Amino acid sequence: MQRRMLSLLAVCCTAVAGIAAAQTPSARFGLGGGVIIPVGNYKDADKIGWHGLGMAQFGLPGSPVDIRVDAVYGQTTHKDIGTTPVSGNTKLYGGLASVVYNIGPKLMARPYILGGVGAYHVKIDAAGTIVSETKFAFGLGGGVSVGMGQSHFFVEGRFVSIRESGGSTSFLPVTAGVTFGK
Q: What is the CATH number of the domain that holds 108?
């Protein structure tokens, strides 16, 4: 009888541990990079540039929703005005806190949409004259994560708009990268 009780207790403990492990929040960390495509007024002044991204993403147990925090550094160069070259560049430093909604079941390839808010610092250097400010930003987009186990590759596109005095700086970062974690 004691042997059966101990066996039953062991089975129950194992089941509870499995359920608790399944409900533990997940954490993923990643790096990526890609192109910045200026849009709106920004497109008139600057060429396509590049960016790097670092991120941390935390899953909510039993939910398709994740919380993601990312930091971005990017740079574009100015376009020439007619035949007159314009030296300098625009540098973007910033980050967003986003809600990520994973679409469908956890398969090898899983699409997602995301939206978030944050702040960006825009630094414009035009022929040695530097103008900079830090302002509110928001972003919306989507992507797909591909992989199994601890590592995944992702590709995503977003629309990011930085609300500056006198207008906005808006761009489309297209990013490819890798994430690691549970």
A: 2.40.160.20
- The single residue listed with the structure tokens 């954490």 is 27
- Identify whether 98 is part of a domain: yes
Reported as a single tens digit per residue, the pLDDT across 68-115 is 999 999 999 999 988 888 899 999 999 999 999 999 988 899 999 999
d(CA 141, CA 158): 4
Using DSSP, state whether 12 is helix, strand or coil: helix
Q: Annotate 74-100 with b (16+ C-beta within 10 A) or e (fewer).
A: bbbebeeeeeeeeeeebbbbbbbebeb
Ramachandran angles phi, psi of 18, nearest 5°:
-65, -40
**Separate counts of helices (H) and strands (E) for the chain:** 2, 8
Q: What is the pTM of this model?
A: 0.83
The domain in which residue 111 lies consists of 25-181
35 in a domain, yes or no?
yes
Burial 40-55 (b: 16+ CB within 10 A, else e): eebbebbeebebebbb
Euclidean distance between CA atoms 164 and 133, whole angstroms: 8
Spatial contact of 116 and 139, defined as CB atoms under 8 Å apart:
yes
Beta bridge partners of 124: 90, 131
